[in-house]
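Intended use. Records such as the Phospholipid/cholesterol/gamma-HCH transport system ATP-binding protein entry shown here are meant for training and evaluating sequence-to-structure methods. They are not intended to support clinical decisions.
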Amino acid sequence: MADSTAENHTTDEHTPLTAEVSADVAPAVEEFMAEAAQQNADAKEAVDDAGPGDTPGPYISFDHVYKSFGDFVVLHDVSFFVNAGETLCILGRSGVGKSVSLQMLMGFLKPDKGRVLVAGEDITTFNEKKLQEIRRKVTMVFQNGALFDSITVGENVAFPLRERGDLAEDQIFQVVKGLLEMVGVAGMENLLPSDLSTGMKRSVAIARALASQPEAVLYDEPTTMVDPLMAQLLGDLIKRLKQQLHLTSIVVTHDMRFAKKLADRVVFLHEGTARFFGTMEEMEESQDPILQEFLALDSLVLPDQDVPPATSGMTPESGIRAIP
Ligand SMILES: Nc1ncnc2c1ncn2[C@@H]1O[C@H](COP(=O)(O)OP(=O)(O)OP(=O)(O)O)[C@@H](O)[C@H]1O
């Protein structure tokens, strides 16, 4: 395992994803990551070609989307997009349709009206078979991790690797070990999900998502119910995945610090509409009283506390973890 002293944990987006991966499995993980990065670069080119004229097509977009449950209107004429390799944060108070939006992007829910485009394709009328193809490209990290409870952490992460059918068992073992080290939960292969804290489960869920080499990852409230240090670590990881794997990400969050750190753009949902769509700087400069109120309330809820830098790897014994 790489040295994990405090001075070696710079945790910026340029720290190699494999910096904490043991020397014995690093080559396998590096090869796996290089494959993923190349695939994502190809995906970006594919959507770049899809736009009209010289305009690149977005990787994901909501195009005038409407959604109601009975008489209850959740989304009313909502539009936004995410370019390939970029990160969008979906912000808004409870119950405004953030999770409903993610479920539509995964094809679990259909819009009543409007179009949903994923991987540059209009998935609005896709049948289940075609949606499964899309779900190979776009994967979701659920709040609770959505791990299989009856199998070990290692088996959970190995699952998508086995599905590929082209990897030998020793390659699977190495990639699983390396991915767990990469997301800061080294040595937890043999534990059951029920042995893990919420933050650890989320890290394992990210490792499992990465094992499927997605082009995009959708995160539902990644910092809910985790402490500020864990939130910082997850944020660093998502940023490095963007920087080094060119992953496209959508992050649903209430956490403005997190959004500030990650977002190329934000969409703010309010009373069924996309009240704001643009950069975080533009949102902060907005004179819209609803946005100003949201930002003011957030600064009350989240005082500007300094989070100490990560200093050590999390071990099953300590229950404390850090990523590079
Ligand atoms: N399948 C469903 N059937 C009926 N109503 C639903 C369904 N899914 C979501 N809703 C309702 O749609 C609204 C938006 O839900 P959603 O989960 O997207 O909110 P959210 O913005 O993610 O909130 P939170 O931040 O609290 O998670 C809620 O009022 C919810 O009860």
